[in-house]
Amino acid sequence: MSDTDKRFLALALSLGRRGQGNTWPNPAVGCVIVRDGRIVGRGWTAPGGRPHAEPQALAQAGPLARGATAYVSLEPCAHHGQTPPCAEALIAAGITRVVAPLADTDPRVSGRGFEILRAAGVEVSTGLLAEQAAHDHAGFFLRAGQQTRPWLTLKLASSFDGRIATATGESQWITAPPARRMVHALRARHDAVMVGAGTARVDDPSLTVRDMGVTRQPLRIVISRRLDLPLSGQLARTANEVPVWICHGPNTDPSLTSAWTGLGARLIPCALNGRQVDPTSALHELGRLGLTRIFCEGGSTLAASLLHADLVDELIGFTAGLAIGAEGLPAIGALGLAHLPEAPRFALSETRALGPDIMHRWLRVPA
Length: 367
Prior knowledge:
Elements: H1 3-17, E1 30-35, E2 38-44, H2 53-61, E3 69-72, H3 86-92, E4 97-100, H4 112-119, E5 123-126, H5 130-136, H6 138-144, E6 151-158, E7 163-165, H7 177-188, E8 192-196, H8 197-203, E9 219-223, H9 234-237, E10 244-248, H10 254-263, E11 266-269, E12 272-273, E13 276-277, H11 279-288, E14 293-296, H12 300-308, E15 314-319, E16 329-330, E17 346-354, E18 357-364
Parallel strand pairs: 3-4, 4-5, 6-14, 6-15, 8-9, 8-14, 9-10, 10-11
Antiparallel strand pairs: 1-2, 1-3, 7-16, 12-13, 15-18, 17-18
């Protein structure tokens, strides 16, 4: 495959990322139709997961799709659902070549889309930018695969010495506006924003995306064993406007169950791990309900439980140039480690300056 193939497929991948956070439970796919070196159609998965990227790009291309090449960021679907298979749509439009980085892991597709195309005489090229595409679709693959859970990004905004609040609980604001704006952009690229009950009680967060022009807000998720969250807080007051899901333990107070249900929240029973909601159970339930990408903003107890359970796929830190001291609240709660080899490790993926702060992104180190 040529550098031209790489350029057009990279564009398809970038278009697909525009849908991240908006397409669950479907993958966020991008498609570019090229004829005689000129782009004649492009599209990406619409909010809610439909229409898919390929029919939108084909509609834009019209008759110019005949004899063209389709660059798609994931194997075209092969199953009949609410819409016909995209592989068949490409064939019907007269596409003669398809370039896609890798196969879909969904068992309803998993190579069948490529088989349908090849059987119809369409040339299929795969493997280009596969690693990049695998990262883009990691949440969809995790949910559709054996782990049956969403991709989890853990965000920590802390002082230079790893504190997220003073001893009195003051935390606004450790980082400056550029870092906080980036957090809103990251929220927008995830299906849901998640916090623990302590953060919900102390900070009274809205967990919405603001000043970014989004039309579809991510879900808000709270992990709360007893449902003992403020019924007059921002989450409660806006539960009918932006969905609130609460992962809780068994035997909750019936009056709290009734109150939160009445406010419009969705209650999700989960197993316990000791005295806390088991994070593995919670993520499996959230995956069962269709979520593919979750952005967790703490607090320290929830962060520790997710790390201890080896559920964090991506770690994003925002570090400010101030020191709070040992009496401050640590960004990560107790992990109970006795030896360094037991510590969860991540590989540095990116660093950048954001105003006076530093953002650093880390990815899970494969076992």
